[in-house]
Amino acid sequence: MKTANQTKAVKYPYARIGAMGKLMESIRDGWKPSQVDVNLIKTLAVASSKEREVLQTLKFIGAVDTSGATTEVWDQLKQEYRRTLAHIVREKYSDLFNQIPVKLITQDSVVNYFMKTGTGVDTAEYQGILFGWFCREAGIEVPNLPESFERARFGKKKYASNKRAKKADNQK
Fold first, then answer.
1. Which residues, including other chains, have CB under 8 Å from residue 128's CB and lie 6 or more apart?
2. Mean residue pLDDT across the chain
3. What are the domain boundaries of the chain?
4. Which residues contact 17 (CB under 8 A, 6 or more apart)?
5. Mean pLDDT to the nearest integer, 90-119
6. CA 138 vs CA 35, 65, 123, 166: distances in Å
7. Scanning 37, 75, 98, 127, which has the fewest C-beta atoms within 10 Å of its C-beta?
8. Which tens digits make up the pLDDT trace of 41-70?
9. Are 150 and 159 in contact (CB under 8 A)?
10. What's the rounded mean pLDDT across residues 155-170?
């Protein structure tokens, strides 16, 4: 049971960067809908079957409130995109930055960090990919974090097929 002093665990987003890139570009261009919800994101066709993750990410960064209304952060992103995003990233990912020195922020360290929050490896990888994208967009240098991750699920398949091949060779 949590005590009054314990804070609620952060639920880090894992939206795909292609969808986020298109939306953030639209924000920078001055677009401001009256309401942002799953239906609007579906209409935009930027996040096929991942609309909820995009909406959750917009809420996480504070651009949209819980009712779906755009916030002051949305307007700040229009006016000073990089500076505003840098402030958001440093604030929202402050625990990660406090635990991992910038030079040690790698694919493995961020995936391990996100897995400690209770997510599986696939989700943690997407969280890490989005974190890295946010850092690059904000001008925050994370020199050892690659733009594209080697996905564990592909490694597992490769490992499984290599294991089957070795087993078959041993049976010959």
1. 107, 110, 111, 113, 114, 145, 149
2. 87
3. 17-158
4. 129, 130, 133
5. 96
6. 25, 21, 22, 46
7. 98
8. 999 999 889 999 999 999 999 999 999 999
9. no
10. 43
